Amino acid sequence: MKRSLPWLLPFLVAVIGLLSVDVGPGPIVKYAVYFALAIALPGTLLLRAAWRSTGNWAEDLGLGSVVGATWQLIGWALFTALGWQRWLIIWPLLVLIAFASVRRLRECWRIADPKPLPVAWTWALAVSATVMVGATTVGVLAYHAMPPDGSAYYPDLLYHLSLVNELTRSVPPELPQVVGERLEYHWFADADMAGAVDITRLTPMIVLFRLWLLPWLVVVLLVCATLARTVSRTWWTGLLAAIALAAPQLYLFFDTSVNLAPPVSFLSPSQTFGLVACVTAAVLLIELLFRNAGGWLWVVVIGVAIVGGGSKPTVLPLLIAGVGLSAVFLLVTTRRVPRRIIVAGVVLVAVGAGTLLTVAGSTKGSSLQFLAVLKSLPVYTAATGDTTPPGEGGLILPALAHGAVIGTLTLLLAVLLTLQAMAWAGFGVAGRRDPVAWFLLGAMIAGWAGYLLIDHPSVSESYFIYTSAPFSLAAAGWFAAVSVRAAQRPIPVAVTAFIVSVVCAGLLVWARGVPAASPGRQLWLSTRVLLVVLALTVVLLLVWRLFFRQAGGGLLVVLMLLAISPISSFLQSAAHGDTEKSQTHRAPHWWVYRDEASAALWLEKNSAPTDVVATNTWCRPAGPQTPGCDARGYLVSGIAGRRTVMEGWAYTNQAMAEQGVGGRRYTEQLSPWPERVTLTTEALATPTPDRLRRLRDEYDVRWLYVDARDGTVSTELDRLATLRHSIGKVRIYDLGE
Asked: Is 87 in a helix, a strand, or coil?
């Protein structure tokens, strides 16, 4: 009981937070029961049957939730393909019934060999989870009102909403913005939400905008803490990992101008879902390859790896690199590589190739360019004079090619290396004669390689470093544990490290200063941060050397690096008095007007899930849909949840492959399906019976969603089609069966 009580804290905070952001008690209870009985519990039972218990319920439920989600995706695919979505609840019930009725399986309901973690671990994880869910509801969800409230929605949210709707009706899914085309995207997180919609009967909107993320935030902390404890065999390293992930979220209580910070994100469900699958697969791979586990665990690992690859393209490269580097280490040190490591490597490569070819879209437009990520920094042009946009410029960063070496290196050190100091601390495990250490190193190296070598039009190479963060935390914690064991006085060392880290955080607040108005000022502040960090490091090492003269000095540096970044961000926000929250994503560019959203909701309620709509809403902001406009309009496919003849095409592989053509970003390229744009435009501006017939015959169009803001709309439509709904500047017509 004393280990269960702390978990009431994040649960109560989540409930209170959801009630404060327009979610009623019914949906909260329904979703909580769903996640517990359809995801976490079945997955935990399956994991124990295939492998064993970790010895405690918290870690079992963390890993088990990912296994449960994997099991649900299998059921979702089968039931949706057969058209039995409304009966998906049977799938998790089969597991519960089997484990309740089969004698051998009934043993999995309890832990045969309990290895409870200290109460301090439980409280630390529970408090970290409370910070995560509290910051998310207060600092993120509260500023993303659900339709029909007029609001400026981050385009990815409406895009994901369109995918959730699509995945409740078809397998394999179509591209909802271009009816009849195959969906090429890493959509497994959206499929998980679709499964939740099928079982709970809640709307896709409330699942995506309010409920889905919160339990997965807790799972993220649990699996990352499990990875840290697994590799170090020290319980408090998991505590450090959880605190390091949760502490930056304190920022959201003071300033919502940044959303939930990576590696978990409300704005990127695919990153969050891919992360938990990646870390879970890593934990199970370590047990499988280096701790003599086997049997059915192979099946579980492969399933979770497939889920990771279908959720985010960054997942499998890290796992493959981890297995590969550990194999190289064993080959060099023992002159042999165990067969199971070879098999695991081959299987992961096959899974990676399979997911890349089928469900890992949005990678088009990417190229290789060393240090391309620097181009996304606001001070890059001020430091180097280069104006090359992401996704362009050749193999070498243009600034380096043109001789701006000093400015480039300053940015590299000041921004990348200092802000990612926590990740670099993990490399302290290098040199250990343990293949698990080299597994972690392989994943970290792959993360940094993707981060520094890939050039994506939307700077998505950053997801490599976000995905590798749990590996860095686990490695840094392991390094700290080794340092503590080597120290003669570990408690004074740890206390000293914490005090010094807080002092250093305060100094960094001073170094960062007030946000700069000019690029030159921003560059100076970045340089000042670098100088402060370098000076602090030198001073700390000298002080340690002079006064302590003992092993374990690395602990001070590691814990300082772990604590500086989150604490300094928190203190900086508080010091600047950012007590009045700034609403996020309120730019007029992304505004969805109330009549647009209200009409879309009417269409969702009064049409069939498979109906097709012709609309003129393919660009944002609302206005004439001229060539070169931002093709990220997902109003009908997102809020209404209906397939369209043509809506926002920016995130298609066809558009992303055109990055830079004509000097335009991929979001501003002309439609890869110009005939659809032409037919829709003509049917709305100059309708004729023949044009409307073509929409019905060629694309099976049933409805016209017409926004007068977005182009010419002829009054002839009132004669040629049946007006079903009108509000503000939006009219919805029925073309009939």
From this structure: helix
For Cα atoms 639, 161, 251, give the angle at the middle one, nearest 5 degrees.
Answer: 110
Distance CA 207, CA 201 (A): 10
pLDDT 10s digits, 611-670 = 999 999 999 998 888 888 999 999 999 999 999 999 999 999 899 888 888 888 899 999
SS3 601: helix
The answer to whether residue 163 scores a pLDDT higher than 70 is yes
Distant-in-sequence, close-in-space partners of 184: CB < 8 Å, separation ≥ 6: 175, 361, 362, 652, 653
Which residues have CB under 8 Å from 409's CB, separation 6+?
none
Q: Which residue has the higher pLDDT, 438 or 240?
A: 438
| Spatial separation of the C-alpha atoms in residues 343 and 349, rounded to whole Å | 10
Predicted TM-score (pTM) of the model is 0.90
Q: Are strands 612-615 and 701-707 parallel, antiparallel or unpaired?
A: parallel
Alpha-carbon distances, residue 685 vs 645, 710, 711 (angstroms)? 16, 11, 8
Mapping DSSP to helix (H, G, I), strand (E, B) and coil, where does residue 99 land? helix
pLDDT in tens, 379-412: 677 667 777 887 777 788 887 777 666 666 666 6
Distances (CA, A) of 406 to 81, 319, 451: 57, 35, 21
Tokens representing 465 are 């470093």
Q: State the Cα–Cα distance between residues 323 and 340, nearest whole angstrom.
A: 10
Angle ∠(312,134,592) on CA atoms, nearest 5: 65
Give the residues across from 703 on adjacent strands: 613, 734
Q: Which of 597, 595, 635 is nearest to 615 (CA)?
A: 635
- The answer on pLDDT for 176 being more than 70 is yes
Does residue 526 contact residue 467 with C-beta atoms inside 8 Å?
Answer: no
- How many CA atoms does the CB half-sphere of 569 hold within 13 Å? 19
Q: pLDDT digits over 49-73, tens only?
A: 999 999 999 999 999 999 999 999 9
* d(C-alpha 535, C-alpha 500), whole Å: 14
DSSP 180-233: TSBP-S--HHHHHHHHHHHHH---HHHIIIIISHHHHHHHHHHHHHHHHHHHH-
Beta bridge partners of 454: 368
Q: Which of 259-268, 413-422, 707-716 has the lowest mean pLDDT?
A: 413-422
Per the rule left: phi > 0, alpha: psi between -120 and 50, beta: everything else, 585 is left
Contacts of 442 (CB under 8 A, 6+ apart): 318, 321, 322, 323, 324, 325, 326
Which two structure tokens, joined as six digits, stand for 376?
């996304």
Distance, CA of 226 to CA of 219 (rounded, Å): 10
CB-based contact 395:369 (threshold 8 Å): yes
- Is 162:641 a contact under the CB 8 Å cutoff? yes
Whole-angstrom Cα distance, residue 639 to residue 621? Answer: 16
Helix (H), strand (E) at residue 454? strand 454-455
120 CB-near residues (< 8 Å, 6+ apart): 236, 239
* Residue 616, phi then psi, degrees to nearest 5: -110, 30
Would you say residue 697 has pLDDT above 60? yes
Q: At what angle do helices 269-290 and 315-334 cross, to 10 degrees?
A: 20
The model's pLDDT over 427-454, given as tens digits with 9 standing for 90+, comes to 767 777 899 999 999 999 999 899 888 8
Say how far apart CA 500 and CA 509 lie, in whole Å.
14
What's the pLDDT score for residue 301?
A: 97
